[in-house]
Each structure stands twice: as C-alpha cells, then as structure tokens.
Amino acid sequence: VCMSVAAHTGFGRQRILYHISHGKNLYAARFLAEGYRDAFRDLGHEFEFVSIRDSVSEKLEDFRPDLYLTSIYLLPWIRRRGGLAKLSEHKRRGMVVGSFTTPWEISGLWLHSLRRRPDVVSLARRNIFPDFFHSPHSERFLRRIRAETGRPCIFLPEAANKLIHFNEDTDPRFECDAVYLGHYIRHKRSTFREYLDPL
Question: Over the stretch 34-92, which tens digit does the pLDDT of each residue have?
C-alpha cells in the first residue's frame, strides 16, 4: 500500500496527513485509517490525522504534509471550510492529494457511485482535486474511473494490520486458509458468490 502511494509522491521520508471523519468513531473507516497510520509509521514516515472537527487549513500549515489522503465523501466538508483553496496552495509547493473513491457505478447503490458525483469528476478533470484516486476495488472498476476523470487510480487492497492481528501466537483450533471479516449485507451477496463461495 505504502509503496504504491510513494510512487506518486516520491520516495524517502514523507509527512502524511490522513483525513478521517472522527478519530474515535467505531466504523470500519477508523480501523482502516489506523492500519494506514501503522503501516506508514512502520516505514519511517511521519503521520498525523485531521478530523472534521479540526481546521484542515490550520493543520496543513502546522504539519505541512507531503501527502494528504482524504475521501470523496469528505469533499463537501472540505468545501464548506474553504479547504479547496488551501489544498491548491499547498499543491503548488509540492503536496500531493490522494482521495478514496467508490467504483464508477455501484449496482443497487447508485447514490454512492462516483458517476453520481459530477462535482468530484469536474474537479478531477480540471486537475483541482485529487492528484490520484485510490480504491480497494478491482482493476476492472478502476479503468472506468481513469477514463472518466483523467486521474490515476491506484488499487490499494485492504490488509491486516500486523500490530493488531499478528501480535500473539496463533491458536491451532482456528487454523484456516481464508478469513472473511465484514458484514454479510444484501448488496455484498453477489460479491460473496463470485469471490468467497468458490473458496
């Protein structure tokens, strides 16, 4: 994950600012964010969070990140706080902006698809926001995003956090070849049939 992002920002020690809705929430986003934090720090990078309760402008000035990671879901909050102008200012000094994205089209969840976010697509085409997208979705989804936005899109698979998941000896009672961790909800069932059932 970190090496993929580093390829877009240059190698060496980086200062990474990660935008999260709230640092103490109980949603998967928090645990994913903590995984990024631990992975980047493990590679020797500096890493800090900024939440929607913070002033992104002040945090950008204080921390001066090389890489700012956010999400298309948080773009309305960035705009309300006048953050796009501040992002552009820091991009001119060399900061790179990466944004999580959904697939171009999501069957049954059209409101969450990137196709329904013309504001994001317009900003991407005008090279305002972001410099690259990242997504845990497969390459077939990413091709369409690249074509429609003109921005690079990196496949970043979600992975275990070695500081949390591998800090104790394994229990032979739970030995297995594959583990699924997540919700079994209706809109994911076709994915289960395609990827998990064959296992």
Answer: 989 998 998 899 999 999 888 888 899 999 999 999 999 899 888 887 789 999 999 99
Residue type, 91: K
Amino acid at 199: L
Spatial distance between the Cα atoms of 124 and 126, rounded to a whole number of angstroms: 5
Neighbours of 185 (CB within 10 A): 8
CA distance 182 to 73: 20
Burial of 146 per CB tally in 10 Å (0-12, 13-18, 19+) = middle
Ramachandran sector of residue 10 (left: φ over 0; alpha: ψ -120 to 50; beta: rest): left
Decide: 78 and 128 in contact? Cβ < 8 Å: no
